[in-house]
Amino acid sequence: xxxxxxxxxxxxxxxxxxxxxxxxxxxxxxxxxxxxxxxxxxxxxxxxxxxxxxxxxxxxxxxxxxxxxxxxxxxxxxxxxxxxxxxxxxxxxxxxxxxxxxxxxxxxxxxxxxxxxxxxxxxxxxxxxxxxxxxxxxxxxxxxxxxxxxxxxxxxxxxxxxxxxxxxxxxxxxxxxxxxxxxxxxxxxxxxxxxxxxxxxxxxxxxxxxxxxxxxxxxxxxxxxxxxxxxxxxxxxxxx
Length: 240
Known about the structure:
Blueprint: E1 8-16, E2 32-35, E3 42-50, E4 58-61, E5 78-86, E6 104-107, E7 119-122, E8 133-136, E9 142-145, E10 151-160, H1 162-165, E11 170-174, H2 177-181, H3 186-191, E12 197-199, E13 211-216, E14 221-225, E15 234-239
Parallel strand pairs: 1-3, 2-4, 3-5, 5-6
Antiparallel strand pairs: 6-7, 7-9, 8-9, 10-13, 10-15, 11-12, 11-14
């Protein structure tokens, strides 16, 4: 019986992206070896990957079937991984995130990230520019964070007034005390849009009509909605 964090499992497998005699359709595809779930409590364990060295094919993809509007999810779900092995000669890309590009991979043993046990991989947003995390857009399609932090899902929804907030983007700015003290011009830092992670409002689902995103723990953030800040009277915040 499977329970808790291991309700869904993919394990003890050999995954080959392209064999020596593929169909023609493979030549233009951007395939994934394993596409992980759009829900929590999944683990991918003891998998070996070969032959993903064409187009933008990658060993791992995220959020299965989230491209379907009737089946999509708000994203930022956590998948645990361990015991992964990638053939260096034929797997140049380990991850290519799929829509809505918010997945969190918790690496139990460092076999995905190379950063040791309890490290993390997640797509890049500007609010992930932090000392514990480094960008690797080519191989990992995002950022890798070490075990001194965690990456956790936070979802915002039930904004009031509803019509006023519908469609507004969530803007997230790293706001640690030492970071602010290091700024020669604090106003310029806050006005520079490139310093903000920008999260789109999403109609569906769980929660609906809201914003979900990975946050790196142990840091402070400044949040606002819209380009320059939109007033609201209520908001529900769900923490994973």
